[in-house]
Amino acid sequence: xxxxxxxxxxxxxxxxxxxxxxxxxxxxxxxxxxxxxxxxxxxxxxxxxxxxxxxxxxxxxxxxxxxxxxxxxxxxxxxxxxxxxxxxxxxxxxxxxxxxxxxxxxxxxxxxxxxxxxxxxxxxxxxxxxxxxxxxxxxxxxxxxxxxxxxxxxxxxxxxxxxxxxxxxxxxxxxxxxxxxxxxxxxxxxxxxxxxxxxxxxxxxxxxxxxxxxxxxxxxxxxxxxxxxxxxxxxxxxxxxxxxxxxxxxxxxxxxxxxxxxxxxxxxxxxxxxxxxxxxxxxxxxxxxxxxxxxxxxxxxxxxxxxxxxxxxxxxxxxxxxxxxxxxxxxxxxxxxxxxxxxxxxxxxxxxxxxxxxxxxxxxxxxxxxxxxxxxxxxxxxxxxxxxxxxxxxxxxxxxxxxxxxxxxxxxxxxxxxxxxxxxxxxxxxxxxxxxxxxxxxxxxxxx
Length: 448
What we know:
By secondary structure, the chain is α+β, with helices and mostly antiparallel strands.
């Protein structure tokens, strides 16, 4: 199995490849510029020699006249040892300093290699503008130029290799240093467990590019820590809620079975156990309902609702309980929305039940419906301390510190279920409380 390269190795290789490519391109461009520069120098040199040769051979158009000027020509050529000349006219060679070299016939500047020697060949007429003018072929030995260019090419390849190697080493060091915060994040992530969720990354020491990632990572750890704490508290609450009824069932059943009893005693014991079992079954059903909500499995139906009708029906249901408690029930406003009637009634029923339980004698419970859609359930009575408001919707949480262990009512799940229903409809619920009143507010999106 091929071992995957680390991110630092990949960055180092990438740096090396980029440096090699840049160095190679720069070297190729420099090499081409040098070749063009040498060609330009050779052209200038040959143009200068051409002027001198034309001056020496001015008026020469026959072999006899050339013979008279040949000595002058040789003297001129001796001044440039690396320059050779060939003169042809009417298919005859009047002068040839390189008899064994085959030259191109086209006019202009050419490059030629012969027997390991590099030449720059310049074909021009001796007398421009005359059709029968003898043709001059100037051959300049440029071998030393080519050796220089070859050495430069070797130097370019050496530079490319050394630059790539140096960049790879420096890139590996820089990448390893730059990725140190990532390794730190990996160490923190590897050390995360149920007992070490309090670790956090130092955001101030992170580079700007990783600061947001570190912030998101710390936020994730905070959410995990909060979720774990809630889960631990939730497990403890479940055990707390079920311990008393189970203990009651066991104790009651054991007492009944200690000795023979009349049939009526057994019947009464079974009725008592049935009440406890019904409450436990309801508790389990509520927990399953909340579990479905946590996994997004609550799928409310979409049907047109007149909220005032549903609120009036619930107020009528609670009317006798309110009358016994001497509490007034009031509904204000109307609104139309789309939602699941059964689920919304359950949510409102939980809020009304809570309001009636905490409203003093002579108080009132008021339900306001505002088009938008905003629905509030408020009641008079003692306010809820501000520090308790964020936890009202936690499971098994009771604002009243006097817990009724094993009570067959008010297990502390009503508000959690209400919040799940509202969220399933795409809305939100929150509580406001001051001295003398408490208000629960449900906001549903338009068109729900």
